[in-house]
């Protein structure tokens, strides 16, 4: 199988990731749940993972690294720490349901800074027009549907000047683009472990300055308190840690750290450039590609004639090509870009994909196109 659905989950990971997870199952218990070697090894591994994440994302203290189950869990903590019923929350036109649904659940007033696809200047103008009405801003760094890189540094600066709290969804940028928490001055940055960080499913990170608890329970320490501790990360980490996941995530981040985000991004953009060139030569393809390469990561969407995207993805699946189709849990992004009725077929690459795989995919898409014509 040629796997091109890395924006959902990176299937192919460094061997060290699964090896570390297996060792954790055999040798570790949980941090803070005993003075024995199995618990102490878990504590050391968890702290090493926090330290690595802090280095990778420009965080001054590893205590500000909170382990979560995924980015959705992290975003729920962040959003419910800062928003309440009727809070005016400004978002981009490209947000995922992991932002929209928590906001709707608490009854926040959602304001949308809708802008043209792959147009950072239009995005900034949209935020400038509406920022004065906002009490909170939540923005994804990169669109999971189109790979559109939003001008997050400029938006962060606008929020600092206006003194509006800021949450960043780094689900598609962590491990691919440079992120510096202290420079951005965000209140929270949420990210999954199982995408660009090459960690196991069921892992995530929330970089937090503070935060209100989403769930409460045991923390392994301060057990005499009737409420959660008032310090990070313990305040936001109730219950047993996913040590196999955390151990694997540490190895995934070690892999990213060693390669460097610039090398990873360069490789992914080369593959997307190759895919876009080939797709543009196939009759009936409508391509969603940035004019300038810096405005897009390793994610590319397209449609074939008037076929629903799910049908095209099904044809590719029969040929052992794994892509994603439909609305990608982001109907707002499709509404903004005008693709809501058809969805899109999404190609998303990782460092483990090759140009040969892209060329094989293109051959299959060309055959599908000819099959439809005739």
Nutshell version of this structure?
This protein is of the alpha/beta class and 374 residues long. It has 12 helices and 13 strands.
How would you characterize the overall build of this protein?
By secondary structure, this protein is α/β, with parallel strands linked by helices. It folds into two domains: 2-10 and 260-373, Aspartate Aminotransferase, domain 1, CATH 3.90.1150; 15-259, Type I PLP-dependent aspartate aminotransferase-like (Major domain) (Aspartate Aminotransferase, domain 2, 3-Layer(aba) Sandwich), CATH 3.40.640. The chain is 41% helix and 15% strand. The protein contains twelve helices and 13 strands. The strands form three sheets. The protein has a seven-stranded mixed β-sheet, with helices on both faces. A four-stranded antiparallel β-sheet has the order 9-10-13-12, with helices on one face. A two-stranded parallel ribbon has the order 1-11. Strand 5 (136-140), helix 6 and strand 6 (166-169) form a beta-alpha-beta unit. Helix 2 (37-56) packs parallel to helix 8. The model has no long low-confidence stretch (mean pLDDT 96).
